Amino acid sequence: MAATYKDRNFVAVIGDEDSVTGLLLAGVGHINTQQKSNFLVVDAKTPLSKIEETFMEFTKRKDIAIVLINQHIADLIRPLVDDYDQAFPTVLEIPSKDHPYDSEKDSVLKRIQRLFGE
């Protein structure tokens, strides 16, 4: 089973410019041999279809271990995020500078609450 996950070396990011820039400066940026990056900067002009497409792509890639997504962007594609139930890559919602984190919306916390019957 460990062999299945050994090639998952990267963190992917879907976020606003400040969040993505900070994470790229921390060293998470990568472009693979197919010229696919592991990040998407979302702004007011980014079509919803592009966000959905990128989320689906990142969650299907075999080289990504974690997908970080700003919570306010996850809200735009909430059905996709809530329906995603795989362990790898793990999808984590993060706050952004302009949008505080709301634990009531977090899909991972909702899943944990369901498991414990809360």
UniProtKB/TrEMBL annotation:
Domain of life the protein comes from: Eukaryota
Q: Which organism is it from?
A: Paraglomus occultum
In the record, the note on similarity to other proteins reads: Belongs to the V-ATPase F subunit family.
Recorded protein name is V-type proton ATPase subunit F
Q: What interactions and quaternary structure are annotated?
A: V-ATPase is a heteromultimeric enzyme made up of two complexes: the ATP-hydrolytic V1 complex and the proton translocation V0 complex. V-ATPase is a heteromultimeric enzyme composed of a peripheral catalytic V1 complex (components A to H) attached to an integral membrane V0 proton pore complex (components: a, c, c', c'', d, e, f and VOA1).
Which SUPFAM superfamilies does this one have?
AtpF-like
Please state where this protein is localized: Vacuole membrane
One MF term in the entry's GO annotations: proton-transporting ATPase activity, rotational mechanism
